[in-house]
Amino acid sequence: MAGVNKVILIGNVGKDPEVKVLENGVRVANFPLATTEIYKKDGNRLEQTEWHNIVLWRGLAEVTEKIVKKGATVYIEGKLRSRTWEDKDKVKRYSVEVVADTLTVLAGRRDDYQHHTAEDDFGNGDY
């Protein structure tokens, strides 16, 4: 049986996106996204913030570079990807990222919304 790997997040961009152009000309953007849960415990209002690493490829990276800025509230749909690598000191590192296939910048007015999908930019969403 096939599994489901689907992530939906609404949060605030923690810093301006970093965009790189790879040797083959493909763009990749990444930025941290904060999601905050607010709840009450013993009558006290508490907040818990989680940070997520967001990665966007090709056309979505180009769109991100143009319209996403630190502090923006965005809606992201994508999938979890984990990766491992060795740093310069030969220490094995591990991270989990959200590879986005939909990005919507949320604003106060309906006509300010900007919605983009991977399919808008390069067909079937494969990268």
Summarize this entry quickly.
By secondary structure, this protein is mainly β.
Describe the structure.
By secondary structure, the chain is mainly β. It has one domain (about 5-40, about 45-120): OB fold (Dihydrolipoamide Acetyltransferase, E2P). The protein is about 10% helix and about 55% strand. Strands 1-3-4-6-5 form a five-stranded mixed beta barrel. The longest helix is centred in the middle third of the chain and has 10 residues, at about 60-65. The relative contact order is 0.22.
The secondary-structure element order is EEEEHEEEH
**How is the CATH topology named?**
OB fold (Dihydrolipoamide Acetyltransferase, E2P)
What's the mean pLDDT score?
Answer: 87
Task: Kindly provide the radius of gyration, computed on alpha-carbon positions and rounded to a whole number of angstroms.
Answer: 16 Å
Q: Can you list the strand order of the major beta sheet?
A: 1-3-4-6-5
Q: In terms of per-residue confidence, which ranges show pLDDT below 50 for 5 or more consecutive residues?
A: 108-112, 122-127
Helix content: 10-25%
State the CATH architecture.
Beta Barrel
Strand-pairing-aware structural class: mainly beta
- What's the CATH C level? Mainly Beta
Largest sheet: 5 strands, mixed, barrel
Q: CATH superfamily assignment?
A: Nucleic acid-binding proteins
- Tell me the number of strands: 7
